[in-house]
Design goal:
Elements: E1 19-21, E2 24-26, E3 30-32, H1 47-58, E4 63-70, E5 82-83, H2 89-101, E6 107-112, H3 120-123, E7 128-129, E8 143-144, H4 147-166, E9 171-176, H5 181-186, H6 201-204, H7 206-219, E10 224-230, H8 241-254, E11 259-263, H9 271-274, H10 286-295, E12 301-302, H11 309-317, E13 323-325, H12 328-332, H13 336-341, H14 359-363, H15 379-382, E14 395-399, H16 403-414, E15 418-423, H17 432-435, H18 446-457, E16 461-464, H19 470-475, E17 480-483, E18 487-489, E19 502-504, H20 505-510, E20 518-523, H21 528-539, E21 543-547, H22 563-572, E22 576-578, E23 581-587, E24 590-595, E25 601-603, E26 609-613, E27 616-618, H23 621-626, E28 633-635, H24 645-658
Parallel strand pairs: 3-4, 3-13, 4-5, 4-6, 6-9, 7-8, 9-10, 10-11, 12-13, 14-15, 14-17, 15-16, 17-28, 19-26, 20-21, 20-26, 21-22
Antiparallel strand pairs: 1-2, 18-27, 23-24, 24-25
Length: 660
């Protein structure tokens, strides 16, 4: 078709057909959309950014859009925001754009002002917003901007757009979506103004249109402008899809933009819908791009938990979007696009949508990583091409087929070592196998699927149903041994927990224990172990009560954006949540606990089954038995200290790299 839009009747794969956006031509329809990385230092972009984006460019992506760059000093919602209003960014931009362009990939800079979704904590200035409406997360009443403030905002956007052009970018994207003062002007929920910037849609869109006009005057018509719009804020009196479609028509008629990107939700009230976890179906937000695309002829980017190229191709074929935003899947596998183009779909390390090391680390003010890809954020030293063949090759024995052992085995084999993996169970996967029995956690199993595919490709020798002893290991005559024997439940942690009517969460999920009708769960972990098992039990018809010493059940689900949707499900299943109580003992199905703040003892009604989501003990006996006999010995994962899966993967990778 002449305008480059997707031809759904075409026999070729639409995902890899070129598309022109303004002055640039993309080699394919895969977009690495904007997302926070926390790689900035002293409010400036860094080499870490450059290597991070270059890795995805080398991986074959069609377009990269950077994380947001701030346009004004009043905007500082988090510590590591890039201050693009400081001209010192320009040479640092050049470092990024030169490295990405060397791979033949165009790159846009997203620019933004967070408005009322900010704080005076860093700036000692009031937050700016269209109206004095406190954001539900920051809870800080902002200053309603006046005419002179609005002019500063507009000038700030234009100035920063000029800096990005000097820095070598191919264009900019205006974030008008989940955390932007522009979205706040567009939304009746946050815009209560009675002047020319409030009221009907034309007035509420005035700031956006003035910003676009000012940018065009500064950078010219040959510089790409993409506008990212929120299709539905999912809040009372918020932006609706009908309004967004009408806004898209207005912007197209103005003739000043080149592309429309899409989003859903707000970055505070409904953040769990922007970066949705595996509880939310794939393609969940694609209805927004689909509606906009039917209304305009500008290229439209669709988003919404796109995990694989088959899914992306279907979106294009059905006409829901012209381009596909693929973020977490390319965080997990920088070569996503290349593997897709080469029909190596099975080789793609599928994203789990677990949000633990990407979204979760952002919530903890740490740099972005990935639970299954230790090189994410460390591309300069641990990128795709960083593994070097070992000379000479060694004979390596890995004991334990959970995430840590599987990762150690694959990395060692990739470096050319001869690897043998021993596992005492009849199957590989460790505790992950049981976690996936919960319907809403099934995608976590992709962690093991990805590793098992590599195990097969690399020809690693695997023996299951084998109890590894020191004698057996010595008989293998290994040059190096990696111990990944995992952990066991600490059944001594609570007096009475060894009784037959007490089970661990893995006993329940594996089917080794059959629960009674009334179940009381003791949760000391605050994460999926308890909430998923409680959901699993309630789905089977059990009456479930969860008792935890934390402030609320599932406290750690907040950072992975699972909390809201789990509580919705818990309410449907009538799960009783009892926080702020520390279990002291279990006797004949009766749990005695103390209320954390009053010291009052509480005896919970007798349960048919007490289920424990408690800490585990490292199973390190084999490691200690081999210390005197094996020249190169490593231990990784839970047998060092019981933690979550990301630690197992990191340590497995580290051990596989360490064997020389």
């Amino acid at each position: 078709m002449p305008d480059g839009r997707c031809n759904i009747a075409s026999p070729e794969r639409l995902l890899f057909t070129p598309l022109k956006i303004g002055s640039i031509t993309l080699k394919n329809r895969i977009v690495f959309s904007a997302h926070l990385t926390n790689y900035a230092e002293e409010f400036m972009p860094t080499d870490r950014h450059a290597y991070y984006y270059r890795e995805r460019a080398r991986g074959g992506v069609g377009l990269i859009i950077t994380e947001e760059h701030s346009t004004h000093p009043t905007d500082h919602p988090y510590e590591k925001l890039i201050h693009a209003f400081n001209p010192a960014v320009i040479p640092l931009y050049r470092r990024i754009t030169d490295m990405v362009h060397a791979e033949g990939v165009p790159i846009l800079a997203q620019i933004n002002h967070n408005g009322g979704q900010s704080s005076g904590m860093f700036t000692r200035l009031p937050a700016w917003a269209p109206s004095p409406v406190a954001d539900p997360l920051f809870r800080e009443v902002p200053k309603a901007v006046e005419d002179e403030d609005i002019q500063q905002i507009i000038e700030g956007y234009a100035t920063v757009a000029g800096y990005t052009k000097q820095g070598g970018f191919d264009g900019i994207e205006l974030q008008c979506s989940h955390s932007s003062i522009v979205r706040q002007f567009l939304s009746r929920n946050t815009n209560h103004r009675r002047d020319a910037y409030g009221g009907g849609l034309e007035n509420r869109a005035r700031l956006l249109r003035e910003i676009i006009n000012a940018i065009r005057l500064n950078v010219g018509r040959d510089y790409v402008i993409s506008v990212r719009l929120c299709g539905d804020e999912l809040i009372r009196d918020g932006i609706t899809l009908d309004e967004t479609v009408e806004l898209a028509r207005i912007l197209e008629r103005d003739g000043l933009i080149d592309c429309i990107n899409t989003s859903i939700g707000t970055a505070t009230q409904t953040l769990y819908m922007i970066e949705a976890s595996m509880r939310i179906p794939p393609n969940y937000a694609m209805f927004i791009s689909s509606a906009i695309r039917k209304a305009v002829r500008l290229p439209v980017i669709g988003v919404g938990r796109v995990k694989d190229p088959i899914q992306a191709e279907r979106v294009l074929t059905e006409g829901h979007a012209d381009l596909i935003g693929v973020v977490r899947a390319q965080i997990a596998d920088p070569e996503f696009a290349r593997k897709a183009r080469e029909n190596r779909v099975d080789d793609i390390h599928l994203c789990l949508s677990c949000n633990q090391e990407c979204v979760g680390r952002m919530g903890l003010n740490r740099w972005l990583g990935c639970i299954e890809t230790p090189g994410t954020g460390r591309e300069q030293t641990h990128g795709v091409a960083s593994l070097r063949r070992a000379t000479p090759a060694r004979r390596v024995v890995v004991v334990g087929g959970g995430p840590a052992g599987l990762k150690a085995a694959t990395v060692a084999a990739q470096r050319g070592h001869q690897v043998k993996l021993l596992e005492k169970e009849e199957r590989l996967g460790g505790q992950v196998v049981w976690a996936t029995r919960v319907t809403n956690r099934a995608e976590f199993g992709d962690l093991i699927r990805n590793l098992l595919h590599q195990i097969e490709q690399l020809g690693i020798e695997v023996e299951t149903g084998v109890t590894a002893t020191p004698e057996l290991i010595r008989g293998e005559r290994p040059d190096a041994v990696i111990i990944a024997t995992g952990s066991t439940p600490d059944r001594m942690a609570i007096p009475g927990s060894e009784a037959p009517d007490v089970a661990d969460v893995t006993d329940i999920l594996s089917g080794r224990a059959t629960p009674g009708r009334r179940v009381l769960m003791i949760d000391r972990l605050g994460f999926h172990e308890a909430t998923s098992t409680a959901e699993f039990l309630a789905d089977q018809g059990c009456e479930v009560q969860v008792v935890t010493p934390t402030l609320y059940v599932g406290q750690d689900l907040g950072v992975t954006l699972d909390l809201e949707n789990w509580y919705r499900r818990a309410r449907e299943l009538a799960i009783t949540c009892t926080p702020n109580h520390s279990a002291l003992s279990i006797e004949d199905g009766v749990v005695t606990a103390v209320h954390n703040y009053t010291g009052q003892l509480v005896h919970f009604p007798k349960a048919d089954t007490v289920v424990l989501a408690i800490h585990r003990r490292a199973d390190a006996d084999l490691y200690h038995a081999l210390q005197a006999d094996v020249p190169v010995l490593h231990r990784v994962g839970d047998c060092v200290a019981p933690r979550r899966a990301h630690a197992a993967i990191v340590e497995g990778d580290r051990a596989g790299r360490a064997i020389q």
